[in-house]
Amino acid sequence: MLLTITSTHQPASDLSFLLHKHPDKVHEVEISTGKAHVFYPEVSETRCTVCLLLDIDPVGLVRRNSGPRGNDFALEQYVNDRPYVASSFMSAAIVKAFSTAMNGRCKDKPELVTVPMPLEVELSALPVRGGEAVVKELFEPLGYTIHLQRHPIDPKFPEWGESRYFTVRLSNTLTVQQLLSHLYILIPVCDNDKHYWIGQQEMEKLLEKGMDWLPTHPAREFITLRYLKHQRSLANQAMEILLKDEVSEDDEEETVEPEQKLRIHDVRLQAVRDELVNAHAKTVVDLGCGEGKLLRLLLAEKQFERILGMDVSYRSLEIAQDKLKLDKLSPKQRERIELIQGSLTYRDKRIEGFDAAALVEVIEHLDEPRLAALEKILFKYAKLVDVIITTPNAEYNQRFENFEPGQMRHNDHRFEWSRAEFQQWGNRIAEQYNYNVVYKPVGEEDPEVGALTQMAVFKTRNSL
């Protein structure tokens, strides 16, 4: 398996200083199942290319395994693609061969560490479970231009179709340290497999290598779960740390005065509760439920026979469980409510088939790609009769003291919409997914700028 990195930075030979590998030599690095070779096919002032070539010993690979992997078939440890593709073996080789660069050190030219450079990467055989869409979902948010060539299962038998193997070419302008951290994490995420046991130490590696970019990546939940080999408990711990600076719907606008904050939050929750009651919904899901304040109001209404709270933060769900005193509810009451951990940007059949859903101060925390994913999940797949959404009214911001143009109410908000912008978005959603929508102010309404919070109430036309 082969990885090449090419720099056109001037002088391009600076790449060799950053990687701490002399271009006139062939370097050899011992890895657990073979050797990694580092060499330079071209070095000039205008272009420099370094190659990382892995030579995996298939026999050693089998001997190293304590038992069969058990995923596909009995002979998998003898017949597999591991010696020939970019996988977690490649990640292990990257961190061992280029450890100095990954740790942000350069002895001879330390100033280069923080310099963004035009870099091109080629992976000759990358296995991708999920196809082209997964590669784009992982690399495009990081600014990469992507060129993919998918390989057929057998060129002599085109009717067999395409394989899951790609030649991947990536280009971006960034630091070498950033590039290596992206490759280190995302190569095994594409493959959706690892050759070694996953434990607490692996979670720490993910946080160490990804902390500068993973918390803001729109696919961070997907990356975390795959990198940790679908070990949900570890993934939950990692997400807690990654999301420590994010907020749930319980965290209020930083610019609102404390008394006003408490009042508008209560008014907002009561308004959403009233809309769900008036919709005659019997089953309700609170998406981004946070610490469960809306859930408490819904539990008090006998109309709701089934209540589901979902949040990406496992810690918030633990707090919600404690505040709702679920362990002290009567069996009949306990059957009405359930808390689940999940992402709003991936289809989840557990939230499908409910009468109604509420998203209270949630959408403004999503960037454009994740908001687009939520739209489809919520309005296309969940098949909800009613959807209640609240979000800040950006026009009201000028009423806050010390307000600066363009300032948002919280540092995690990705956007804040005016009433016209919110209605433009809602009208498009309604038209695209066959809903009717009405807009309502939440809280005291200013004659010029409207209310502090705005609400959209969607109802499917099929129910009318």
TrEMBL record:
Cited Gene3D superfamilies: Hen1, N-terminal domain (3.30.1610.20), Vaccinia Virus protein VP39 (3.40.50.150)
EC number: 2.1.1.386
The keyword RNA-binding is assigned to this record: yes
All residue ranges annotated as the Hen1 N-terminal domain in the record: 1-242
Protein name: Small RNA 2'-O-methyltransferase
SUPFAM superfamilies: S-adenosyl-L-methionine-dependent methyltransferases
Molecular functions per Gene Ontology: metal ion binding; RNA binding; small RNA 2'-O-methyltransferase activity
Catalytic activity of the protein: small RNA 3'-end nucleotide + S-adenosyl-L-methionine = small RNA 3'-end 2'-O-methylnucleotide + S-adenosyl-L-homocysteine + H(+)
Entry keywords, A to Z: Magnesium, Metal-binding, Methyltransferase, RNA-binding, RNA-mediated gene silencing, S-adenosyl-L-methionine, Transferase
GO biological process: regulatory ncRNA-mediated gene silencing; RNA methylation
